[in-house]
Amino acid sequence: LKRPDFIIEDVVKTKEISLSDLAKSIKISDSVGGIDVEANVPEIFVARTHPLKDTIDEIREIFVTLGFSEILGNMTQSSFWNFDALFTPQDHPARELQDTFYLDGINAKKIGTPEQIRKVSESHKKNWRYQWDINEARKMVLRTHTTCVTIKHLAENKPDEARIFSLGRVFRNEKVSYKHLVEFNQIEGIVVGKDASLRNLMGIQREFYKRIGITKVKFWPTFFPYTEPSLQTMVYNEKLGKWIELFGMGIFRPEVTKPLGITQPVLAWGGGIERIAMLKYDVGDVREFYNNNLGWLRSATKCQ
Predict the structure, then answer these.
(1) Does 291 map to a domain?
(2) Which of 32, 142, 191, 220 is deepest in the core (most CB within 10 A)?
(3) In this structure, what CATH number is given to the domain that contains residue 276?
(4) What is the pLDDT of residues 289-303, one digit of tens each?
(5) Which domain holds residue 150?
(6) Cα-based distances in Å from 65 to 111, 164, 165, 248
């Protein structure tokens, strides 16, 4: 077969490409020599999740991979579960109006089983030596911590072994500052087991901090009404050049567990998520997460 002759045409010197989405056009010619891939282009801001939401999701994933299960609870709780069941006396300063948000005129009709109420009442009378008032226990509050969720779960299920955590909003009537908010997010968890010990608890905390990217950690003795012994987790802030407190932790006291029928040792800890996010994003003021500063939100690096 005879090969057909190829037809050679002159190459068009100039070609126009329309970019309808930018309502602009560029010309490629021999004189230009092609497209300048280093030329400035309009900056486009794509949708992304909030840095605080990224931190919450990361913390949730870490505890799930460590074998924990998440439980949920209401933001409004009776004082019985928020305070009394956790061996916090009814005259404790944390229960005053200047520290806790009460739901005005709203009381819980049912706060627990008659047996739970009786045993918690007896524990308070015997150990704190005052007359326990059920009407105080019925007062509804915006939860001041998520521990009320886990202690209620333990009282209802009485597991011999468990690894659970609760994550959500809590409320405290505090003066807003660079490190305090009236509404913030808290992570709280417990481990139930016959051989649970303070050494186990410190090991869990160290592993969590390592996975979140915090390497300098130490524990200080402290006091909490519902744990004994109690420790405060301290982590080193490179920017501030000092140790700062994050999580409180300890072993639930017998005065907490026995009235609710819990027979195994319970390790417990909890702390604010915003403070962890401050370390991850190098933020010096916790209010920055809620200021809707688009410049900062666009520049914040996503959690890795």
Answers:
(1) no
(2) 191
(3) 3.30.930.10
(4) 998 888 888 888 654
(5) 51-282
(6) 34, 12, 12, 22
Degrees, nearest 5: CA angle 140-154-187: 70
- Would you say residue 46 lies in a domain? no
The CA-based angle 273-278-283, given to 5 degrees, is 155
**This prediction's pTM:** 0.81
Q: Which amino acid is at 126?
A: K
Q: Which residues contact 163 (CB under 8 A, 6 or more apart)?
A: 66, 67, 68, 69, 189, 190, 191, 192
Q: Is residue 95 part of a domain?
A: yes
Token output for 137: 């226990």
Contacts of 77 (CB under 8 A, 6+ apart): 140, 141, 143, 148
Q: Structure tokens of 246?
A: 């994050």
| Pair 230, 222: CB distance under 8 Å | yes
- Which ranges constitute the DSSP H helices of 144-292? 147-157, 198-212, 254-257, 273-280
